[in-house]
Design brief:
By secondary structure, the protein is mainly beta. It is built from 1 helix and 11 strands; from the N terminus they run H-E-E-E-E-E-E-E-E-E-E-E.
């Protein structure tokens, strides 16, 4: 019983802290500015205005290089915008990770896991107030490879760009 009480308390605290009285669902297209990852689509879940979670994937037609990844962006810093808040700007911090499955030089199946930090800077447009959000962001990112060996080098800086649409449920105001 004690664990259930603590769990309920933690969930309610998280809901209050993250303002999770509303949530958003959406899709985004991912683009790259350098040859750092495959372009592709992502499904989005936003438990609040400030937390965005994306699940990314890429499946190569020839099956040579497939990837599955995620991003978690926390954007608590709304930048000044004009009223009414139809157009909003955001700044935050984020994390990402992805697993890549590929064929190595010997033609054998291989994989690697990478992750890192990002600083998302975005713009949001609300054509239908409190319901539909169209957004774009660029997120300067720094990557760390975990497998096959832990590596950090200067060439792991890249600038992913995303454009998407999100539908909000239970949303009261724009930010």
């Amino acid at each position: 019983m004690k664990i259930k009480t603590i769990t309920v308390f933690l969930i309610l605290s998280l809901v209050i802290i993250t303002q999770a009285h509303s949530f958003g669902l959406g899709v985004q297209a991912n683009f790259r500015t350098v040859d750092s990852f495959e372009t592709g689509m992502a499904l989005l879940f936003s438990p609040s205005e400030i937390i965005n979670i994306a699940g990314n994937w890429f499946i190569a037609p020839d099956g040579e290089r497939n990837s599955l990844g995620f991003t978690l962006d926390i954007c608590p810093f709304p930048l000044p915008s004009a009223e009414p808040r139809i157009l909003c700007f955001t700044l935050g911090v984020g994390f990402f990770g992805w697993a890549v499955m590929f064929k190595n030089d010997k033609g054998e199946s291989d994989s690697e896991f990478d992750g890192g930090f990002r600083i998302p800077l975005g713009v949001k447009f609300y054509p239908v107030q409190n319901f539909i959000e169209i957004f774009a962001h660029i997120a300067p990112s720094f990557e760390v490879s975990f497998t096959p060996q832990f590596t950090v080098d200067r060439e792991t800086f890249f600038l992913p760009i995303a454009v998407g649409v999100r539908v909000w449920f239970g949303k009261k105001d724009n930010r």
